[in-house]
Amino acid sequence: MIRKRAVVAAAFVGTVALGVGVGVWASSGGGGAGGAAAASPASPTPTRSYPLSRAPRTIPAVRAFTAARGPGWTPRKGDRVVIGDPALAGTGRLMAGELGIAYAGVKDEGDVRAGDVRLALGGGGGNQESYTMTVHDGRVDIGGPGAAGVFYGTRTLKQEVHGGGTAPEGVVRDEPAKQVRGLMLDIARKPFSESWIEDRIRELGDLKFNELGLHFSDDQAFRIESAGHPEIVSKDHLTTAQVKRIVALADSRHITVVPEIDSPGHLGAALAAHPDLQLRNANGVPTKGAIDISKPASGKLVDDLLNEYAGLFTGNRWNLGGDEYQALTVTNPQVSYPQLADAARRAHGSGGTVADLTTGWLGDRADTVRAHDRTIRVWNDGFFTGTSVQPAKDLQVAYWTGKELGARQPVEYLSAGREVVNYNDEFLYYVLGQPQTFVYPTGRRIYEQWTPRVLRGTTAVPARYDGQILGGSFAVWCDFPNAQTEAQVAAGIRLPLQATVQKLWDPGRPSLSWADFQRLSATLG
After folding, report:
1. Of the residues 174, 189, 206, the one at which a domain ends
2. Which residues of 65-81 are buried (b: 16+ CB within 10 A; e: fewer)?
3. First-to-last CA distance in the chain?
4. Which domain CATH number covers 93?
5. Which DSSP letter does residue 182 get?
6. How many domains does the chain have?
7. Residues 140 and 269 in one domain
8. Does this model's pTM top 0.85?
9. Looking at residue 453, what is its pLDDT?
10. Which of 80, 170, 351, 451 lies 20 to 30 A from 297 at CA?
11. Which of 493, 488, 498 is nearest to 521 (CA)?
């Protein structure tokens, strides 16, 4: 990843140094030797000359730009969006509507004319999210090896036209540094509406995010319709039809919706309908949100849900949760929960512990999801030390905190070879009501102090681990759901989201000051 970034930087320096175009000059006007132009060859009359173009001003900023001289491109009546491949039809129609010009469908290169915006697949390297955008001769060409990259090119064009009216002459070569660029929403505690979620998807798409996490099950509520277990669903919930529309809109913006049914903790809503599966301590006292993992019926209930929702959420990523299982927060789990201790010994031998049982139980749930060909992540406090049972190597770490009991430094996961997604609660947690020590994160602090390597607190892990850090996700948690309205949440996360994606697209020091970044944000709207 470091070498790759160096190559991009070198390309930027080289291309800008070479980006000297030519002005547009009048023709001589005469074809013969006796023409007036032939008599005065040293004095051509310029019809128009252009200054060297400036790089597009977008969020996130483009990573390389070859400047040129020319008028750029401004949408006008009669201009068209054309595509070179039917797979780009959705993006083409979207772009045409946003620019207020016609969509003309598939056209061969020979049928493209001045004023057209042409979208095409092909060329470039192996990064499916990379793209090239060329503005030249009164037209725009956006191409990339994958449909996602072409879509991101259209986001650059949209921002340029909406922010300044004209896309500058020249060539943009762009790609993200990090492959995971997400927003996670806690819709379990706060029932965000379908329309609000869809507005966030449109916002994320324009900013080149590629992931939306939905945490829809917790102690407070279970928020998505279930055909298999309707008894656990809260009154205020999303229907399967609504979720399908959300997923379809996200797909059209190249955003993967990542579901999370947290277990074996945070299952209070489901357990309200299944009290027989509620974990109880040695004194018979219920343990909040915790399912009794010594009971086979507990695994069956959660597996039923995982299998059902795998058919609804069609993306390739899944969050299993795994955090804050309260049985492991007491001084002596073996004594406090003898039924778990007995089950651990039966499953893992005489030395088996409750942590072993929990690790094995989460591994079984991972097997269920893995059968649906999903990449799985687990919160960092769902990985335990000193266990004889080891979590599968392919489980990614969603690192959010160093504050939980037994929390380990990020380097412990990285040095073991695990891939990590950054959810650092110091910068990326927007917790409604600001409970405990949480404060609403600011875009400025993210923009000036955070990078994907800052996984815990404010200190970056060594650069040698950069390639294992897949990216990051801003997270909205709704501990006090009525602390803010939907509109207030949208306004509150707007600048933090923009700052987050800037640092995920290019973790280097931004070229704009924070004040200039704010002004650009206001201009883009």
Report:
1. 174
2. bbbbbbebbebeeebbb
3. 32
4. 3.30.379.10
5. E
6. 2
7. no
8. yes
9. 99
10. 351
11. 498
Q: List, in order, residues 6 or more apart from 209 with CB less than 8 Å away.
A: 181, 182, 183, 255, 497, 501
Q: Long-range pairs for 98-102 at CB < 8 Å and ≥24 separation?
A: 98/158, 99/75, 99/157, 99/158, 99/161, 100/75, 101/75, 101/76, 101/77, 102/78
CA atoms within 13 Å, Cβ hemisphere of 432: 20
Tell me, rounded to whole angstroms, the distance of Cα 106 from its chain centroid: 30
Is residue 24 assigned to a domain? no
Q: At what angle do helices 486-505 and 514-524 cross, to 10 degrees?
A: 120
Cα(226)–Cα(232) distance, integer angstroms: 8
Question: What is the per-residue pLDDT for 48?
Answer: 73
Q: Identify whether the C-beta of residue 222 lies closer than 8 Å to the C-beta of residue 309.
A: no
* Residue 353: exposure state from Cβ atoms within 10 A (0-12, 13-18, ≥19): buried
- Measured in whole angstroms, how far is the alpha carbon of residue 198 from the centre of its chain? 15
Provide the β-strand partners of residue 259. 214
Angle in degrees, 0-180, between the axes of helices 354-370 and 338-348, rounded to the nearest 10? 70
Per-residue pLDDT, 35? 36
Instruction: Classify each residue of 298-323 as buried b or exposed e, where b means 16 or more C-beta atoms within 10 Å of its C-beta.
Output: bbebbbebbebbbebbebebbbbbbb
Element (H, E) at 498: helix 486-505
- Pairing of β 46-48 and β 24-25: antiparallel
Q: Is 103 domain-assigned?
A: yes
For 42-97, how does the pLDDT look when each residue is reduced to its tens digit (9 = 90+)?
A: 444 555 789 999 999 999 999 999 999 999 999 999 999 999 999 999 999 999 99
Helix (H) or strand (E) holding 174: strand 170-174
